[in-house]
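Title: [Solved] PAS domain S-box protein 3D structure

Original question kept below for reference.
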Amino acid sequence: MKQERFITIAAILLLLSIVMAGHFLMQQNLASEEYTARMELLQRANQLNTQLDRDVQRILTLRPHHYDSVVETVSQIRANRKLIGSTDVGLRGIIDKRFDSQIDQFLESSQLKSEILERIKLEAALLRNSLQYLPGLIDELHTETKFSTSDFGTHLLGAFLNYNLFPSSDHQQRLEQLIKDLKVPVWTESLHKLRSSILLHLTANIKHREQISSLIIDYDQLPSSQLLAQVRSRYESFYKSQSEHFYTISQILIVLVLSLIAGLTYTLYQIRIARAASDSANRQLHDALESISEAFVLFDDDNRLVLWNRQYAELFGESADLLQLGVSQTELAEHYLERGDYAANSSMLNDLLLNSSSEVGGSEILVNNCHYLVNSSTISTGGIASVYVDITERIEMERKLYGLSQAVEQSPASILVTDTKGNIEYVNPKFVELTGYSEEEIIGQNPRILKSGKTSSEEYKQMWKTIDSGGEWRGEFLNKHKNGDLYWEFASISGIRDKNGEITNYLAVKEDITERKQVEEQLRIAAAVFNTSNEGIVVTNADNQIMAVNPSFTKITGYRSEEVIGKNPNLLNSGQHGPEFYNEMWVQLQEKGYWEGEIWNRSKSGEVYPEWLSLSVIKDDEGNVIEHIAIFSDITQRKNAEEKIRWQANYDAITGLPNRTLFRDRLSSAISNAHREGWTSALLFIDLDHFKIVNDTLGHAVGDDLLKSGVAIFAKVCFGHPSPSKQQNLTRPFMPTAPRPSCVRRVITSSRLYTTPSVTLRRHKAAAASSSSSARALNYEYADGVDYRGLTAFASLSMAVSAGRRAFNRLRTRGGYRCATRR
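Solution (posted by the thread starter after getting help):
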């Protein structure tokens, strides 16, 4: 039925395709005829346009005495324009608005040509009129005047004819000059009218000739030929594209028709083959039913026997010969009951004959100690087909599987089984315990319900690729408990195959490894700290042999790990600590389990550096030392920074001299030493004269350099005894000490203190002398009259400054102030 319907539809489509192909061919022929007619119109327009140009040239020669041919040409052009501009047989409205605009431009140009031609005809007629009358008037002028025929009249007539036959600017100028000459002679009253007529015709002739030239220029500038060529080219391109379009459609229709014919032919051929195959299938069905191991029976919608196989007959034993076509299920049952074949087990007979066929579905029966599964289904005609499958082996297998299932149920590992699409079909109690999902909640779900989002899609793709190919996949998952807690599990996933080797399910056996992963994570963090720490780390065994070092150890000491593994850490010994230092360190390490402190070690390059070292001991459960761990950091930069801070706290940043705090400490120490040794000491203040002027005029940078130069000179004068200090911007105190007062006096009175040479500082030459004062009041007998902070000496300095440059003032305080000023 379906095949006949398909043939009908194919025939209709074939007929429609043939009709459409014929229609397109007719349209193509019609379009070809219209194209020919329109091209003839354009060709005719081109011919008439050329004819009009030739007529204009003939008019310019002033030969024709009538314009009948010109009128005929113009009339034909007008008719041709009307045809071209029409929408029926013309060109308008067949392509687009732009093409219509080109047609309008051509028609307008052609119309203008016709109008200019009419004006040229008028001007040519007037010009020809002057040519007819002027020669006679000039002859009359020769007759009536004294001019001879060979002079002025001849020249005038020649110039007139040359200008009209060969128009040019030179001929026009020549004729105009003769016209001027014609006005010069004195004319009589009788000839005055003749001269006026000649001048009138000459002037009119020139005017008409100029008008004709102007019209010719306008005529030649009209692009009618070019516009006509554009219209023709555009129409030819349009027709060509349309022809190609028609050709393409025609080819498609031809191919479609041929395809339908081929398809229809092929369908008829397939129908023939299908009928043969149907007959063959019926035969094969009978053969197949006889060859299968299952019993098969088919009853029609009236419950009458239609088809059965040998295995079904064997179920009835010796009564199998009663199976005939058309026998009903009820007749078979009654016959067997009458013979008593199944009297002892009539319920089994009912299951065998009635229930298995009248109730659509599946049930199990027991015949001769064999288990059969009866599957019945309703066919399209209303009958019932039943298949009896021997499931004895399956029943035995189920008993064995039950024992195996108990083992799975009690397994300490989490187990789940899915179908080939990943839908969960079974989980054991351990899975329920691990995930928090009940069996009812998880069955039918996909294992992705456990996904935490922490495992990449690439890992899942690799897993499916492995198990789909029949392999076993092993790996780790970070999954999510029902309550949201994350846990790690190690999974082994593989396919479950049937007898044919086809994968029917997937089995996953999982182990909870959360605690193990936590331990591994702690170890990983410890390793990361070990490798990335800025402090050097050394691990030694109980015998103090190096087992491991981190990268910072190599960075600080210069030794690579392979150079120190198995060696004693004493290879870093710098020699700056004695044996007692190390003995004390080991004693504390053994007693307290740790030691920390500053130590000086030597790197691979030989450089000695300070480090802060922390030692600790690792013991086993029994208290035995198994490892030592040393963590140290290079504190060279810290030591340098501390030294810099100490220096900045005690010294002036510009001159490098001790500041007030350090000077006060040194002054107190010097006084104490002088008292203890019985030496003489003095406090000396030096002022740089005019230092403020140098500082203000040349800048603070030059002033600072001058201070540094002065300090260097003063230090040389004092022979290394004094302790100079900066107290103010202009003042430098020194404290020379010596066993005898004469030594101190020699320093104070040295001329080099007051003859500071000029120096060049930052490209500026500066010179400054010094003034000084001294207070010799620091030993026992003078101690009562001196303020060690320098107040008395400052008063003496003021006196020396007032005395002028290169002066000093000495102050003794026993019995009062006494000053002596020298230059």
